[in-house]
Amino acid sequence: MAEPRPRRPARPREEVLAVAMGAIAEHGLAKLTMAGLGKQLGMSAGHLLYYFGSKDQLLLETLRWSEEQLGERRRATLRQAGLSAWERFGAYAELYLADGPGDPRWILWVEVWGRSPSSAEIRQGQLEIEAPWQADLTALIEDGVARGEFRAGPADERAAQLRAVLDGYSVPLAIGLPGVARDRSVAQVRAVAAAVLGTDAAA
Question: Which of 5, 37, 74, 130 lies at a C-alpha separation of 20 to 30 Å from 82?
Fold first, then answer.
């Protein structure tokens, strides 16, 4: 009687999500198939669907995993002693902005935004993933106001405004629009932020 074939151990979640992130960034979600992703991982499409349910859910979980990793860096940066509120905003903006054309994290965001209008699941997941960025920036602005570095005003509204600016500069970087450079984008974000926050620290 033949011995049963040993079961292949499941891939660690982090490995699955890292491979998914690379595949989505390279080909886009529309061209990604569970069968193709499973082939890269040595797993069946059915196994992937069992864990993620759908490509939309896979997209959300991959983005959530990516943002959790970056969130650890963001929180550590914002806790650094001896930095002014403006310096901490600069560090926040550097982490937020796309690194350049094809930035995998930002390609995931572009995919999420593109699917959000037709999916309540995607919209809810998007809000949950964005919330820590908003909360951390709001707290940073409140601290800057308390220290007298920033002009008094509604921190939550200004945080939303600045995140919209960061989003607006990140997308052209991520998709590689001609003539868009990261250093220039950083400088423009800082100029807008100085006006919104009411500080001359950028000068």
Answer: 130
